[in-house]
Write a structure and sequence with these properties.
Blueprint: E1 13-17, H1 21-24, E2 25-35, H2 39-46, E3 56-60, E4 63-67, E5 88-91, H3 94-107, E6 110-118, E7 124-133, H4 136-159
Antiparallel strand pairs: 1-6, 2-5, 2-7, 3-4, 4-5, 6-7
Pfam families: SmpB
Organism: Aurantiacibacter marinus
Biased composition (Basic and acidic residues): 135-160
Amino acid sequence: MARPKPAPFDKQKVVAENRRARFNYYIEETFEAGLALQGTEVKALRGGEGTIAESYAEVRGGQVMLINANIPEFSHGNRNNHEPKRPRKLLLHEREINKMLGAVERKGMTLVPLSVYFNSKGRAKIELALAKGKQSHDKRATIKDRDWKRDKARLMRDKG
């Protein structure tokens, strides 16, 4: 019996996306996690600011932390403004954390953020993936496949 496909995440407004992640990694499994943010961080994200291109996540002391994600200071923030690249706690269930910890320790996988978005309830969420790194020859094969699909679509459109 085939397993049902998991429901897609409820993405209303995507703030930041890590487009290179799908090129640099094989995505094995994705998780949706909440972000523990300060007030000025939420305001900066609502303004569409923030990058996760160079960021990653790691399990520390039973908690998953988002490292090196950049949420710039809020323009109208005062002295209570946040630090742009501080480690941020990700809110996950304990069994999800244990699953991630096992995959990272045993299989040598990486926790890569794919996108930061607001769901329909207005909560900041992050799509996190368990991923395995690609070798350079795998990346070349990905480029070759993508080019072939583009050429095939062009040929089908022209024959039409």
